[in-house]
Design brief:
Elements (H helix, E strand, L loop, with lengths): L2 H14 L2 H21 L6 H17 L1 H14 L3 E5 L2 H14 L4 E4 L3 H5 L2 H7 L3 E4 L2 H8 L16 H12 L7 H18 L2 E4 L3 E3 L4 E6 L3 H7 L3 E7 L3 E2 L5 H13 L6 E5 L13 E7 L22 H5 L1 H6 L10 H12 L1 H4 L11 H5 L6 H14 L5 H15 L1 H6 L2 H11 L1 H5 L12 H10 L1
Parallel strand pairs: 1-10, 2-3, 2-4, 4-7, 5-8, 7-10
Antiparallel strand pairs: 5-6, 6-9
Helix pairs in contact: 2-12, 15-18
């Protein structure tokens, strides 16, 4: 058992038994689920929209190399600069070099899962540069010393009382602040940061090949502030975020908004095509786009290629019974939930993360709710298959399944053991996984096989 698996099981056990944690998560997820039902009503033919979006992403991934080169050509023609980063370390070093060239000691950062993936805040901190989260949820998590809990809503596991406690402990505010008061304090603290920071960092929800554009979708406006006030704007974007054309946005923006938060459209939707032009009054004087691989080309394998269609709406997390019971932090990875369990073994190593693909009931609800109809639960099975083919399962696991297979294929072998022996054997094998949390398994005194034979004789 790997260290990652041990940590996962330990955290899962704690959270699965934490009723207050589950209450908060269930409450917040239900609010989103209710909103999503309303948001879907904006589509005349939702299934057609989903299928069309999937076909567009299929086209984008099949032509990814060509479209990436087209994006670079267009973006650089507009005065921007493109940096190709094969690894997280290359992306980190590129950002650090830009910051040192600008002699900056402070960076303002919009909400971005890909910068969480490369652990940018910690890296810059170790190099004497403060990286300030400006999204309210991310700001709360940064104050509390925690990573994001959810792809879309970083502080989903916190109640308003929890947030007030964090502000009280870290900022010395009143412990009984209302959500609106907390928001105003965060705004006051962050506004000065935008003005003084030399560098702003964002992610990107989509890349547009035909115009050389980076799309940033947000609800608070902090992304626009991060990219407008600082003189230098760095967008870190995974290569899978590619769309062929700006004309695809009227479909993808509403899908992302509806399946992510239940909105018809997210409040702020921006397309950046480079630094500010001569006739523009605001915007950065320099803009960089870092195109990050960091294992993404491993996802081009036929078995899991569909995972590259993901638009990071978070709907599969909200639907997953495992996620709702153990929470986002138990996974110990940047991307949690079903889609995280699919992609993480390919981004960070199958040996260390194969267990995530087993943390699923295979109910298929993740596939059902995905706006692009990504076959998530089938890819979890493919990951398990790959792990077995790579001989990553233990000797004990192999022996158990070999014995199970023989017993299932040969009924006489199953009938040899008495009911008592069966009970003892099964409950011994599953004592840490089943018996510890449920009643012991009990075999019937007579199997159906025996009852049927007796009936036939009668």
């Amino acid at each position: 058992m790997t260290s990652q698996q041990n940590v996962f099981l330990a955290k899962s056990k704690i959270k699965a038994e934490d009723l207050e944690h589950k209450r908060k998560v269930a409450f917040n997820i239900q609010k989103y689920n209710d909103a999503v039902v309303r948001g879907k009503q904006q589509f005349v033919n939702l299934e057609l929209a989903r299928q069309k979006a999937k076909n567009i992403k299929w086209k984008a991934i099949e032509q990814l190399d060509t479209l990436l080169e087209q994006f670079e050509k267009k973006f650089t023609a507009n005065g921007g600069k493109v940096i190709w980063a094969e690894t997280a370390e290359e992306a980190q070093e590129a950002i650090l070099q830009i910051c040192r060239e600008k002699n900056t000691k402070q960076v303002v950062k919009a909400k971005s899962m890909v910068t969480e993936e490369i652990h940018l805040n910690d890296f810059l901190g170790r190099n004497g540069i403060e990286s300030v989260e400006t999204d309210l949820g991310e700001y709360i998590q940064q104050l509390d010393g925690e990573p994001p809990y959810h792809i879309v809503t970083p502080a989903m596991h916190k109640s308003k009382e929890d947030v007030a406690r964090v502000f009280h402990e870290k900022l010395g505010t009143d412990p009984n602040l209302s959500p609106s008061e907390i928001t105003m304090i965060a705004r006051k603290n962050l506004r000065q940061k935008y003005i003084t920071a030399e560098v702003g960092v964002t992610g990107g929800n989509f890349l547009l090949a035909d115009v050389g554009g980076v799309c940033v979708t947000e609800n608070e406006g902090n992304g626009r502030l991060c990219s407008s006030f600082p003189k230098t704007h760095i967008a870190v974007v995974g290569i899978e975020k590619m769309l062929p054309s700006i004309n695809d946005l009227p479909l993808f923006w509403p899908l992302l908004a509806t399946f992510g938060t239940g909105q018809n459209m997210t409040v702020y939707n921006t397309v950046f095509t480079g630094p500010a032009r001569a006739n523009e009054t605001d915007g950065p004087t320099e803009m960089y786009v870092i195109l990050l691989d960091n294992g993404r080309t491993n996802l081009l394998k036929r078995e899991v290629r569909e995972s590259m269609y993901c638009i990071r709406c978070g709907s599969c997390l909200n639907a997953c019974p495992v996620y709702k019971n153990i929470g986002g932090h138990a996974y110990g990875t940047t991307y949690s939930g079903p889609i995280g369990a699919v992609i993480t073994p390919h981004l960070s190593g199958m040996a260390e993360h194969k267990h995530l693909s087993y943390a699923s009931s295979l109910c298929g609800n993740c596939t059902e709710v995905c706006p692009l109809k990504i076959n998530i639960h089938e890819m979890l099975l493919e990951n398990r298959h790959m792990a077995v083919n790579q001989n990553l399962n233990t000797i004990g696991e192999k022996a158990t399944w070999a014995g199970w297979e023989q017993a299932m294929l040969h009924r006489p072998l199953l009938n040899i053991a008495s009911t008592g022996i069966k009970n003892k054997t099964v409950n011994s094998i599953f004592k840490d996984t089943w018996v510890q949390h449920r009643a012991p398994l009990r075999f019937a005194e007579k199997s159906f096989n025996k009852l049927w034979k007796e009936r036939q004789k009668g």
